[in-house]
Amino acid sequence: MNDFELQSRLKGVPVPERPEEYWQDFPTRVAGQLRRPATLEASGEAAPVSRFAWQLAAGAACLCVCGALLNQPLRAASTAMLKKEIALRHELNMFPKHLRILMADEHGMHYLVADKN
Question: Measured between alpha carbons, how far is 83 from 87 in angstroms, rounded to an integer?
Fold first, then answer.
């Protein structure tokens, strides 16, 4: 539909039948409705509630994003520590109870097999 067809359709729609008082009071009612939201915002009734709701939602979103971003490195470090602990426990279970001596140096974990008496 182009502009010409739209204009012709709009002009073809009949104006609703209203009493004369309606059309006389119409500009005053519209002006009153336009001033009303500004009056509410200036008086502080509706604006702080909606502003608080938006601030609360933005804060919650920031917390969720920060939590997700901070959780990734912690989860990776936790997983790495868990794998090392599992490997260490596996190595310890390979020895009898009295041969549990391990040594850690710059090259990693080494066995110091010495009988504990």
Answer: 6
